[in-house]
Amino acid sequence: MKRKTTLLATLLAILVAVPALAGPKNRSHVIGFYNLENLFDTYHDEGKNDYEYLPDGANEWTEAKYQKKLQNMARVIAEMKKDNGVWHTVLGVSEIENRHVLEDLVNEPAIAEANFQIVHYDGPDRRGVDVGLLYDPKKMTLVESESIPFTFEGSSIKFEMNKEEQANFRTRDILMVHGIIDGEHFAFYVCHLPSRLGGKGVDTRARGGEIAYQHSMKMMKKYPGIKCVIMGDMNDNPFDDSMAKYMRGRKNINDVKEADYFSPFWSMLDAGFSSLYYRGEGNIYDCILCNYNLAHAQKGTFQIQPIVKKKFYGRIFSKPFMTNQSGQYKGTPFRTFSNGAFVGGYSDHYPTYIIIKKK
């Protein structure tokens, strides 16, 4: 009975949503991603290694520092709204500790009027960092969501870890959110692929890309014509295997076939753009890819738009206040901590976004 009730509720939501969300044909929607760089509260989550982000921990993470962090994150989101004229319809986030920090964030005065709703699941990461998604309920109606576990079964990849190591491996789940925007089905995937620490993780990041891609193929089969977007901190550049091979990302939009994804930040990386710096080099790990249905949309439906110099289909959002203006790290993102000291910055990543609009 529960299963039938859930299905009925979903169908009713879809039927109600289509006329309610129908709006001007020229309405644009901002779809973005932001790594919030360790947005932790000041309380211990049972079973998680979050001790450095406690008042008596290594970072001396006090309520005042937490409130400053929230204000900073909200300021960036509000500044993007100023630039675009509208709030994000969808904003994927990573490096958040729990739902509580997202609730505090969306209630910050700078962004409270957006009335962002939250999709979040507690994941298995040992530090307790998760991914999540914020959405504007006036523009998107939620149909369903799923936390997709990171597993090794059924993969085509040869892994360095043995079976015992694989069984003990923990990383972030991939979040899938299925919603309807102006009558069209969308599936959003939010990823935070395994770290590069120690020069490792090439195979596990590839596996993360494989998981997201395979699930999206199932959604496209189940919902013909659905627009799919894969976003996140990939800990890889667009040309790396996780995205170019296992997500089938393509640099040029004209090269995108039905089983491919368009990877707009690849050409931006080639042109010298960066969303973060790793070991002194500029990279774009904060990527957003869209499927064929969004890259080559049918007339009258949503399509990704060129937004930078009428040439690039993505934007890396950076402002002077988000960037170090002097010293050793001049020109790089102004982060929360520097060399172990709290400096009151924003994030070590710049947010990224795309814009979609009906043709």
Helix-strand blueprint:
Blueprint: H1 2-21, E1 28-39, H2 63-84, E2 90-96, H3 99-106, E3 117-120, E4 130-135, E5 140-148, H4 163-168, E6 174-181, E7 184-192, H5 202-222, E8 227-233, H6 241-244, E9 249-250, E10 261-262, H7 264-270, E11 276-278, E12 281-283, E13 286-291, H8 292-295, E14 302-304, E15 315-316, E16 337-338, E17 341-342, E18 352-358
Question: Can you give a write-up of this model?
Answer:
By secondary structure, the chain is α+β, with helices and mostly antiparallel strands. The protein has one domain (28-358): Deoxyribonuclease I, Chain A (4-Layer Sandwich). Helix content is 26%, strand content 26%. The protein contains eight helices and 18 strands. The protein has helices spanning 2-21, 63-84, 99-106, 163-168, 202-222, 241-244, 264-270, 292-295; strands at 28-39, 90-96, 117-120, 130-135, 140-148, 174-181, 184-192, 227-233, 249-250, 261-262, 276-278, 281-283, 286-291, 302-304, 315-316, 337-338, 341-342, 352-358. Strands 1, 2, 3, 4, 14, 15 and 18 form a seven-stranded mixed β-sheet that branches. The protein has a seven-stranded mixed β-sheet with strand order 5-6-7-8-13-10-9. Strand 7, helix 5 (202-222) and strand 8 (227-233) form a beta-alpha-beta unit. The chain starts with a helix and ends with a strand. 44% of the residues are buried. Residues 1-25 have low confidence and may be disordered.
